[in-house]
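mind reviewing these tokens:
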Amino acid sequence: MHTNTPKEPLDARDRPARLTVGVVGAGRVGPALAASLQLAGHRPVAVSGVSDASVRRAAALLPDVPLVTPAEVLARAELVLLTVPDDALPGLVRGLAETGAIRPGQLLAHSSGRYGVQVLDPARRAGALPLALHPAMTFTGTPVDVPRLAGCSFGVTAPEELRLAAEALVIEMGGEPEWIAEEARPLYHAGLAVGANHLVTLVAEAMELLTKAGVSAPDRMLGPLLGAALDNALRSGDAALTGPVARGDAGTVAAHVEELRAHAPQMVPGYLAMARATADRALAHGLLKPELAEDLLGVLADSGAKSGGDAEETP
């Protein structure tokens, strides 16, 4: 896999001042980011969370940090991490601004991949300094998340005058800053979702099929295979494609579809969609011979028509 070149230690003149840190939204991300900042010398002073899971996460990752209201978090902290779900972020920012909770000069950073800094405009008008710091990492909500941030890329968006401060904070958390333009944030986030979220679905479906086939340890079987496939894909892109679709083995693909119809019919649409996408990429990169592609695409089209027919007959 790709390796990250360690960043040179920050010169003392480039390091942000030691900050008091608050977290609004003790989900899986916020406490881990605050814990990483604590390792860099910053001081978490307040966290907000409502659910029992949030309270447990805060206790595990930020012991002895008081659990308070969002307004109180902002009253105590110089750097506030807004780590709530994407859909809740605009309303939270508006509410904090309208209630006067935001102090001029306060650093306000959210961790949403979807949004840049425009979502923080109500806070900026109240005098806050807006940052978008999105870690390209999946989180468990446990202490293992903190070391995983080492070498993790962050999608960073900030006003030009705050760019160095944003990048410095990311480096202090062990991350690698990657500058993302405001207008490119949704596309950037879609790329991560396709790669990470859909991967989980694919792996879970693969384990389910192997279990149905009688494999006692599907995770152990898939681990080396998927690890090698991921490594090859990151190194070589489409040139790493292998398997029956890339080979144009229409008979094998037809057999797959038949077995899926019998044992996991809910997986047929996803298999067909991914097979078509794989065939298109293999063709475009010269891996799939055009004379073999015709039969393969015919199988996929016929299978798709059958799926459509079955769906229409289902009450």
About this structure: Confidence is low (pLDDT under 50) at residues 1-14, 309-315. Residues 185-212 form the longest helix (28 residues). The chain is about 50% helix and 10% strand.
